[in-house]
Design brief:
This protein is an alpha+beta fold. It contains two helices and ten strands, in the order H-H-E-E-E-E-E-E-E-E-E-E.
Length: about 190
């Protein structure tokens, strides 16, 4: 026990310095307002109304691709609310369903919930970008782990939307999800 405490005590300054550096790097990233003038403008309800298809991959913290997937989203919206019914088909054959219930809470502001989301997801749209933050319950080795997601979506044109999600646990990176959506043109 004494050896363990000594080892931890010697590594504490390095761990603290790494945590400070990570938090400073997080502060340096541009906020969603940075994209306010970018075109085309993302209208979340218009983009996801109807059927949208996406292709993506999950990478671990080292960058190794661990899973690939195809997702089909059926979206229904009223003026202030929406439902995104997602069906995932994973490269290993697993099928997964998630139903997001969204609510517009102000100009460019959205909140959402789903069965496997802890609490309320928060999103903000500015220009061509959406930042969507939430905690997701993920099954892992017979247990459930809560992972924080920081999604950034960027509308490329009226048909293509890219999504990069950083996954963290206790503020430390554990992986990324990269995804491209395409919806049929007009």
């Amino acid at each position: 026990m004494t050896l363990l405490l000594t080892a931890v005590k010697h590594r504490l300054p390095k761990l603290a310095a790494a945590a400070v550096l990570l938090s400073l790097l997080g502060c340096a990233a541009p906020g969603v307002e940075h994209y306010a003038q970018q075109q085309p403008t993302l209208d979340l309800a218009r983009y996801f109304a109807g059927t949208t298809k996406g292709w993506g991959m999950v990478q671990d913290w080292r960058g190794a691709v661990t899973r690939r997937f195809v997702v089909t989203i059926e979206g229904r919206f009223t003026a202030e609310e929406g439902v995104l019914d997602e069906t995932f088909v994973w490269s290993d054959g697993e099928r997964q369903k998630r139903i997001w219930r969204l609510k517009r809470t102000g100009p460019g502001l959205w909140e959402g919930s789903a069965e496997d989301v802890v609490g309320t997801a928060k999103g903000e749209v500015r220009g061509n970008a959406l930042r969507w933050q939430y905690t997701l319950k993920i099954p892992l080795d017979g247990q459930t782990v809560e992972i924080q997601f920081d999604d950034w979506m960027h509308l490329i044109d009226q048909e293509v939307l890219t999504n990069k999600a950083r996954m963290t646990k206790f503020g430390l990176p554990v992986g990324e999800v990269t995804l491209a959506f395409r919806r049929p043109g007009p």
